[in-house]
Fold:
Amino acid sequence: MRAASDVTTGDYGAAETAMQTYLREGEKRAYDLDNRGPIRFHADGRVHTDILDAYWKYGFYVFEGVLREEELNDIEADLFDIMERLPTERGSAVDAQGRPALGADCEARTLFWSKPLGDPFGGTDLANGRHPVKMLEPTPAVGLPQEVVYLIIGSLQFSEASLRTYAHPQLLAVAAAVNGEDFVPFSDALFIKEPGKGASVAWHQDGTTHWDSPTWDQGTHGFNFMAQLYGCTPANGVWVVPGTHKVGHIDITQRVAEAGSERLPDAVPMVCKPGDVVISNRQLLHCSFANTSPDWRVTVNFGFHRRSSVLGVRGGGVHSAPAVYDEERIRIRSRVIGYAIDARRQRFPDETPFPYNPFAESGERYCWDEEAKASMKDYNLLDFSI
Structure:
C-alpha cells in the first residue's frame, strides 16, 4: 500500500511550482522548531518538562518512534481488513464480496465520503460551519471511483490494534500530564489519505463550546493523538499554525484572504516517520491538503479532554447528539479506556499497563473479551463534542 498507481500526473505549471515551494519551505520551518523527539520522563516518572513546555508553546509535539514494528504490523493488518470490508459505494449495505459492509449496521455515522481529492467540508455549514473556506480541489486521474472513504469515526470498534494503541502507557501518561489524572475520552477516528484520492480538510479549529467561557485557556478544548502508520509528509500530512491554540477563535476567512490562498505563510506541516505519534491541541488552526502525492497517510486518531471541560457541559453536536454530559455518561464512555488497557496487556505482556486514576479510585476492573467486544458497537454515540 506504500506505492501509488493512480496519482494524477503531468505539468501543473506555475500553481504546482508555487505549491512545491510552499511544501519545501514549510518542512524547513517545521524542523526549525524544538518540538520533536522520543517521549521522555524525569526520574520520578513525570513527563519531561521540556516536552510539556514545547507542547504549550507551539500547540503540538512530534513523539518519535513510539510504536514498534510489531504494533505497526497489527495496525496495517486491521487496515487491510477494513479496506476490504468498506461498502461498494455510499449507502451500500455490502462490500465488494457481497458481505455485510463495515458500519452498515451501526446507528452512529461512521464512514465519511468524498470525491477523490475533494474538500467535502470547506465552505459549507457542516460541523457547525467551522470550515469556512474551501480548499483547492485538484483534478483526479481518470477512472477513479466517484467517491472514496477518507475518514472512519468510532474506529476502535473496527480495529483491535487501534484499540491497543489507544492504551499505550506512555501516551496515556502524556494525557494525564496535559489534562490531569482524571482525563476523559473525546472521539476516535481513522484518517485514510490514499495517493491521488485522499480528500483535503479545510482550515479550522476543533473547539466548539468554550470559546466565550470565562475560564477558557490554551487547553480548554483538549487534544488529539495522531499515530502514523506509514509516516506523513508535507504533501499528505496535517498543517498547523504554531501558537494559535492560545489566541482564541480565529477569523479564518480573513486569514486566508490576507494570505491570498489557502497556503498560510506561517503554517508548518507535521512531518513524521512510521510509528511517530503527534499530540496536537484541538484549538490549533490546522488543515490538510488533497493528497496528490505518491504516498499513503493512515492516521490512528484519538483524543482526550479535561474532565472539567466536559462535566456539566452541553455538547456542541459535532461528534455526537447535543446533550448535557454528566458523571454517568463520563463513566460509561471511559470504559473504552479500561477495555483498551486490558486488550493491550494481553497483546504486550512485557509492558507495565497504565494505571488510570479514576478506575484505581473506584475499584473498577475491565476485561477485554467477547462480551466487551460486542459492547463496543456504536460506542461513539457517547463521544464528547466540545
The longest helix spans residues 327-347. Confidence is low (pLDDT under 50) at residues 1-12. The chain is about 30% helix and 15% strand. The domain at 14-382 is CATH 2.60.120.620 (Jelly Rolls).
